[in-house]
Amino acid sequence: MKSRAQVLIAPGQFDLREVEVPEPGPGQVRMRVHACGICGSDKVLSQISVPGTILGHEVIAEVESCGAGVTEWRPGDRAIPIGDALGMSDQRGGFSEWITIAASALVRVPESVPSRDAVIGEPIGNGLHFVRRSRLQPGQRVAILGAGQIGLSILYWARRLGAGRIVVSEPAPARAQLARELGANAVINPSAERDLSAAIAAALGGRPEVVFEAVGRPDVMEDAIRLPGGRGSVVVLAGITMSELTIRPVSLCLKETDLVFPIGTVKEEVEEVVAALHSGALPAERFVSHRIRQHEIPDALHELGKPTNQIKVVVEYLG
Question: What's the total number of domains in the chain?
Answer without folding.
Answer: 2
